[in-house]
Amino acid sequence: MKNLTYAMALLVCGTAMAQEKPTEITKETAVKIVKYKDGDELKEGKIKVINKETSHVKLDAEDANKINQDRVPAETKVVKTVMIDNDKDKAYDLLTTETFYVNEDSSYRFSPDESGFMMALSDDQNEFVEIGKAWNTKSQGNYIVRGETYNGVGYFDKDGSFVVEYYDEDTESIKIMKYDEKKDAL
Question: Which one of 79, 93, 143, 181 has the minimum C-beta count within 10 Å?
Fold first, then answer.
């Protein structure tokens, strides 16, 4: 009976794990040593930047029955983490983690702070300009969003996209603005 229970547990867990979408994760880490002067003393610090790209693997539907299938461009979520080590301990201190999104061919950066996160839009010179702020609410996973063009309520959906629902006075209806994970061709 004990062996039958183990076999059933293995069968159920194995089947559940096989249902996950194939995902590709690329992680790049760069460490730069910076020397700075603190009074008369020359000190050394380290800056560590970690870029993590996560994307779902999608294959061309026309190659469904082929052995070697072509990949198609898929959504990619890019998370940039900046850390600094300028003290005596060996651990790095977290400075910031930024996530990049795209909406209607515009690129956005979400930078967390103590009360939520800042929203910035990439301009023509590829510099980010602040366009809004999202505050954490007492309701887990929901945000109050105040932006240049709308104010509303935001949340992350099951696909990892940030969704903002707001009232449009011109059409007298609820509109939805969706920020999808950054899309890159792989």
Answer: 93
